[in-house]
Amino acid sequence: MSVRLESSESLNADPVTTNDVDPSLAVSADQRALAEENRTLYGVINLVSSSLEMQPMLQGVVDLATEATGCHACFIYLLEDGRLTMRAASPVFAEAVGKVQMGLEEGLTGWVARHRAPEFIRENAMGDPRMKFFPLLQEERFQSMVAVPILSRSEETIGVIVLHTEAPHEFTEDTLKLLVHIASLIRGAIENAQLYDQQRGRVDSLTDLSGLAQEVAAATDPGALTNVVARGSRRLLGAEVCQLYRLGTSGGRWEMLASSPKAASPPPALSAAELMLAVLDGRRARPSAPTLWPDIEVADLLVTPLSAGDERVGLLCAGSPLGRPFNDEDRELARAIAHLAAVAIKRLELIEGLTKSNIVKDLFEALAAGATAFAATKASEVRCDLNEPYLMVCAEPAGGREQSSSEWRDAAEALGVALAELAPYAAIEAGPGPVRAVLALGTRRSQRIDELLRSCRELGASTGAAIGISELRDSALEASRAYREALDAALIGRALIEDGGAISYSQLGAYRYLVHITAEDAPRDRMRSAVDLLIAYDRKRRTALLDTLERYLAERRSVIESARALFIHPNTLRQRLGRIEELTGLKLDQDDLLSLELAIKLARLHGRPGAAVSPA
């Protein structure tokens, strides 16, 4: 055993030795070891001061430590998002860099990081219960191990340096001390490099985001826009998959707008989008990414709402590659992309809406002018084929309300939205005047007409609108006629349906022949005078003589059928008919009852109604 000399004076003194060891050899060995250690540390200093680039610096430290200690493997782990990830390794283990990861509760490396204290296993390293075996690292070959934490300026763990060696070589305490010195030298460099990488990453992200913004601005339709956003999000986030979702027009379910890669299918349980929304709203715990995309190797899930102002436009969903969870910078970048996408989607929707409004306006102006060929062209631009089955619809406020009222404007907007859901394709002009619509039925044809009429009656009643519906047509040449039918039905419906509803052109009966006769052009004869007298009497006495007379005429003077329709006793009906003859001087068994019936209908059309008539 030799005694190490501590001062320079001892170099000239007589050496103190035991076992006949030449003291000059011992001193020389110590000096060489110290010189080698200093050379290694100077090399580390040169590395950390030469560049802000992380990877070259870490790899240089690995090479120096390997050479200085004669170890078989040197690894440097950095703490990233709560996990230790190998960021540099001896050349023979280069393929493990970036792949080997462990938590702070795993392995001796995790123990050292967690306790912020170095640890040294002199022999039989794999026998230590704290060790975690990685086949990629061939750890069964290792005999001895040293692990030293890399602590930040605030004494928090930012990484770990690990040395392994094979038998019969064993590490000594001097190796541990050298590694501690190296760790203290590189900690500042690692923090500076991480800060530099972070700032450079932000600059790169802003540059890429600016490029994506230019691509988004150049997109001219929603399909191209969403594909640009999906591809750009995947590229900027380094994601394995990115998908965009939008709430359907009915508000009932989410629809996938775009996916990158395109082959990626929507999550199998498509309430997956609803699930993601529940995550954002805090109503559910976050699902795992593999649950949503079982056919894609993903590790982490990132869900970001697309919001424009207070409106939630959709969702951006991304899955990260295995071994790379999303971090705070990714989440911040995803929010920026989502905002950019939401504003662009709303902008395109506004442009598309204005363009469609102009097309629809031109369509109805062409129909009114009888320009059927031009109308058919405009209809095709909004995916309505006038050579397939279609209906024309027109709606006006019932009960004498004005089209300029705010109440009707709100009702017209709601009616337009509801009408659009009744047909696969529709061209709708929802005010500010009447609501006008083409409902292209496609393959639905006549088997759905009764259903559609029933829905229109319910819509009219709920919105206070008188809805007129044309006959079913399947030729562009008949489009102007169908449009006039819908207008006539709405005009008659406005006079007859006081509380709102719907009436088809086929239900108008004799009214279709009278609708274009103005009040000034209507005959002013004995029959009309009798009708006016009954209207005045009913208003004053709150009776229903005009309704009784109209039903009696409609039932071809059948007392039994008329009484049944009016829910009164036949004798009551006879008394009312006698009172009508007494007031008007009419002889119901002798006079021209057709003229009388037409006079009643004209009176209703021209704003002298009795009770409302319910369409069939």
Walk me through this protein's architecture:
There is one protein chain. The chain is α+β, with helices and mostly antiparallel strands. The protein is built from 18 helices and 15 strands. α8 crosses α12. It is rod-shaped.
State the separation between the terminal residues, measured CA to CA: 118 Å
Helix amount: 40-55%
The main pleated sheet reads as: 6 strands, antiparallel
Mean pLDDT, to the nearest integer, reads 80
Total strands: the figure is 15
Order of the strands making up the biggest sheet: 3-2-1-6-5-4
> Low-confidence parts lasting 5 or more residues at pLDDT below 50?
1-19, 609-616
Structural class call reads alpha+beta
| Shape annotation | rod-shaped
Strand content range:
15-25%
Discrete helix count: 18
Any idea what the radius of gyration is?
Answer: 44 Å
Write the layout of secondary structure elements.
Elements: H1 23-50, H2 54-69, E1 73-80, E2 83-89, E3 101-103, H3 107-115, E4 119-121, E5 142-151, E6 157-166, H4 173-218, H5 222-237, E7 241-247, E8 254-260, H6 272-280, H7 289-292, E9 301-308, E10 311-319, H8 328-369, H9 372-381, E11 390-397, H10 406-420, E12 425-430, E13 435-440, H11 449-463, E14 465-469, H12 479-496, E15 501-504, H13 511-514, H14 526-541, H15 545-554, H16 559-566, H17 570-584, H18 593-605
Helix pairs in contact: 1-2, 1-4, 2-4, 4-5, 4-8, 5-8, 8-9, 8-12, 10-11, 14-18, 15-16, 15-17, 15-18, 16-17
